[in-house]
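Structure tokens please, single chain.
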Amino acid sequence: MFSVVIPAYNCANTIEEVLDSVRKQTRIDLIKEVIVVNDGSVDETESKILAYKEKYSELNIRYFSQSNHGVSYTRNRGIREAHEKWIALLDSDDIWFPHKIERQYNVIKDRNDICFLGCCSRVKFLFKTYTQGLVKLTPKQLCIRYMPNTPSVVFKKDVGIELGLFDESFGHGEDVNFFQKFFLKDSYYILVEELIKIGIGKEFFNSSGLSSDLKKMKEGRERNFREMYKMRLISWPFYKMMVVFGKIKYLRRIVIKRISKFKCAAKD
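Here you go.
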């Protein structure tokens, strides 16, 4: 049913907990393989993975190692190596709650129209908030609020490959850039439940990971808006409005980040 795909890079401190969250799924029988692709790590990532693979052979970990190519290339390799119909994405510093796969399976098992499903603890827009159930997003809603987080996503492998998988030229926003293509299949669904925890040991704005590079994040969003317009998913006026909105959001985040740094410095 599911192939789990995990790109791994210098994650020796977290990869065991990540794999534990897969192994402890309530419907582990639905997970046929766990594909871990080591993207040129220089720490103890490889030894930790191989030791885990030997200790828990029942998890069927398929391990691949390569020189560093970046997260999009690494995810794509894992997806192409997968044998199962459905791909479940997971990152090497995020974890699943135990019933994550079971809850998503219960949604998709009788719904042939769903080929993409993520999850969020709540879905909030200007005048509407969803706290439970299944929500079908529109392109405009995705522009306004990016969702879901990558490790919550499952999708049909054949559809993902047809849509081109992750753009390997992207450095930021590559996840949503791929996800938004599922609107072309009229299938962008969110299960409103808290089923994952992201960024083990990180703070969203102040970490050294990808999400802390706010300028490049803004540029990635603008590129995604532009591609949505080219796919005729949004209008030209809406596209321009979202670019302006994105610039305002970027400035707000810069202010928040600087205030946070100032407070940390003051404590020291």
